[in-house]
Amino acid sequence: MNGIKVDINHLKKGEVNLGTSIMAVKFQDGVILGADSRTTTGSYIANRVTDKLTQIHDTIYCCRSGSAADTQAVADMVKYYLQIYAAQLPPNETPTTEIAANVFQEICYNNKDNLTAGIICAGYDKKNGGSVYSIPIGGSIHKQDYAIAGSGSTFIYGWCNENFKQGMQKDECVDFIKTALSEAIKWDGSSGGVIRMVILTEKGVERLIFYPDEYQK
Amino acid sequence: MSDPFSINGGSAVAMVGKDCIAIASDLRLGNQSLGVSNNFEKIFGFGDKCFLGLTGLATDVLTLKETFRFKTNLYKLREERSIEPETLANLVSSTLYERRFGPYFVSPIVAGLGHKDNKPFICGFDSIGCIDFAKDFIVSGTASDQLYGMCESLYEPDLEPEQLFETISQALLNAVDRDALSGWGAVVYIVTKDKVVKRVLKTRQD
Amino acid sequence: MAGLNFENYQRNSYLSTKGFATPRATSTGTTIVGCKFPGGVVIAADTRATSGPIVADKNCEKLHRLAPKIWCAGAGTAADTEMVTQLIASNLELHALSQNREPRVITALTMLKQHLFKYQGHLGAYLICAGVDPTGAHLLSVQAHGSTDIGKYQSLGSGSLAAMAVLETNFREDLTKEEAIKLCADAIEAGIWNDLGSGSNVDVCVMEVGKDAELYRNYLTPNVRSQKARSYKFAPGTTAILRESVRDILDVEETVVSFDQMEVDTEA
Q1: Which Gene Ontology terms of cellular component type are present (chain A) (predicted)?
Q2: Strand partners, C202
Q3: Is C145 in CB contact (< 8 Å) with chain A?
């Protein structure tokens, strides 16, 4: 193992970067994912309405941070693997979030020298209800009640730790995420735009969008 | 040190006239500032009315000349006809792009008339095979900056063969006189539907 | 024969360690844009190709056809945009033929992004990909590293900032086809005037649902060269000639002579 160096801060020149604020939180009925919508190349905002919440399966989503190209490629791979896997399951059964997260982990770990990808995988399945997994750069995996990641997350570690509550109601949880991300966006230059959310419950998928006028009080 | 494109020196230019084309190059081969040969032609014929000019690193010029001689000979055997200038252009493009991550240090130009319709065609390439289709003129080599200037001012469309010869010759001559790495003689091909005239020009020898 | 050849790579990187410069490729220091309108999509590009500070081509084509109704505008390394586009166009046609369906924009985009990701950004192709297919009109963009974006209006290339300024101020959801074309052309013109890497003319391609794609080559020509005031024709004989050789080109005529019976000795 000696001599292996991982330059976690390196991005290839001119690479499109998701200097991001992303999070996923468990609540009473399932899980909610949230993200800002800014994509940057250097100081230029390449896309101000990015969708960083990517569907992996029916009720499994991921939040992407790091290199846009790397995270899209990894998400596409996991999506493909889950399609093959789901086709082999008995009728009316779907892959668990745990499976999806572990596929992410496997790919991120095996290719860690070539990837700049910080991913939060979250979803709802009948067996486990809502669950949240964090797969940071390097390819480790962490099961959590809530996860925050991306450059903007550094500003909200303390606030989230103080204000997170187990088993929140839906509206309460949406407010929690909205407040957290609005602070992250406020302090982090590479985060911005709208706040996107995806709510994953037994009932399926619900998408929310919050514009700056609303969340910037 | 220096740029591989300008170790050996040399320039070439092609122009379109009325139902004719002209392609010309200098004759110098050098090693940095030392002149080595005054008889290094950079224009090669493929079929009767189709020509390829190659400037840049001399070793790559010769390698590519042979590569294209080989490829166009095989083409002629397979197709039972000579290669068209448009086809040669695409052949040059794909041959160069094959070496995308380790290119030949050359800037080729292609000029010719269509074999059946005698339609004039010229084009140029960068070292990795991007085609520059031009309707007027194409320049390449160490005096390309000077040639751009000469051609932009001297060129006019629809010149007759003899007029085109004077224009391309003066453009080349005056451009290479301002380039230390080009010169030492020049050669011009004027291609019309029924003949190819090759002229060796009287030039400065310094 | 197929595929890339890395033989000269070692030689060239040895050369560059010895201090030799690396070759400069023609780049399309470009402005390209695309914008959607109800019932279709339009893309546009300028026509300048540069090699360092030199304008290599004053009227090049940056609008590439991937399929009859899927077109893309390319910025970055000119050879890469051209070759990557030709490769995907070829594979897309084979795919459409084998599936017996019209090709989709998302298919083209996926093929492009997977190819570019494989090369880890070493292929410098930045593309705005647009078209109509059985699922409607689409506008997407791909960056060299293989990331993609979706949007109702997009711009790429060195003039993208100037173009985006125009798009951000004038874009509406309910643009008519004519307004969308005007908007794209205006955005490209912003690049032509304000970006040094962009110039010359505006090319436009319009793709409408249920119609054939329309390419307007040189839709705007705001930089026409004025008539030269003086001719620089030289008197015949100006250039001194040392030697002349003439090669006459003769037409070979072939006629097929038909005859009724071949004389064959059947006795022996």
Answers
A1: nucleus; proteasome core complex, beta-subunit complex; proteasome storage granule
A2: C46, C220
A3: yes
